[in-house]
Amino acid sequence: MLPRRSTAGGRARWYVLAMALVLGAAGCAQPPRAAPARSCGQVSIAVNPWVGYRANAAVVAYLATTRLGCKVTLKELGEEESWEGLAAGDVDVILENWGHDDLKARYARDTVVVGTTGNVGAIGWYVPPWMKTAHPDITDWHNLARYKDLFATIDSAGQGQLLDGDPSFVTADEALIRNLGLDYRVVYAGSEPALIKAFQQAEEQRTPLIGYFFEPQWLHLDIGLVKVDLPPHRPGCDADPATVACDYPRYELDKIARRGFADAGGPAYRLVDNFLWTNTDQNTVASFVDVYRMSPDEAAKRWTEANPDKVEEWLKGT
């Protein structure tokens, strides 16, 4: 279980204050609910295994249910399984897609790119803040070879350990280690919560850790992870997964719909089409769930009540 309190001084205090403002604003009444222009019916939403995606799904599902009268089914699936579900007709929408140009091409006949979520995604290698203070040069990948022993664990069998999360996440870390000539080994924590807990403990206990992490993610506002500078990304440098030796690209996260769902143009599709928010918005809802232990519905209710203008924009045309 993740801790319920922040542990990082100024950043944490700023974040708690921001949360208090949002929670306070949540007492404001929403505009009267207008009846949807047409019946919504059923909508099946894929839910991938990280809290940022769950935040997207929580808000869209809450509005689809409470404002549009849809019957929503949330399906817990991995990323590739979600695409397979779109093609099979079992899933109507993916609410946060990280690139996957290969899957877009494979399932082009069955799917539609709806547009961006507004979120900008980043993946990379990170260390806890104390390590940057103690070892200022540790964020240059050229220096990782001489820090190998610092990061070695029982699980890495004498090599430096690079901690990854869920094996199903977008990652090129094993190829990166090999192609950069680093004597490191990828060890999987198994899930996003396990990865978060590892970074929290590394900062609190001042234990060495280097690992895979990403944005948007509320943990950055809590302990301010420090990114390691890998060789800069350039177009095409990751075209061959076996030879990749560059940093991850920035991702304009997008939404993918089943073609039949999009062609029908129903209220739920219009909501998904209009859905657009920021990394801060997502991190706020994600922290409600992960840090404050709200249910997804409660988190969505709090956020939507505090952000009526965005909600009404999303509901236009539904």
UniProtKB/TrEMBL annotation:
CDD domains: PBP2_BCP_2 (cd13643). GO terms for molecular function: transmembrane transporter activity. Residues 42-305 form the ABC-type glycine betaine transport system substrate-binding domain. Gene3D superfamilies: Glycine betaine-binding periplasmic protein, domain 2, Periplasmic binding protein-like II. The keyword Signal applies. Keywords: Signal. One of its GO terms (cellular component) is ATP-binding cassette (ABC) transporter complex. It comes from the Bacteria. Residues 1-34 form the signal peptide. InterPro entries: ABC_Gly_betaine_transp_sub-bd (IPR007210). The keyword Mitochondrion does not apply. This is Glycine betaine/proline transport system substrate-binding protein. It comes from Umezawaea tangerina.
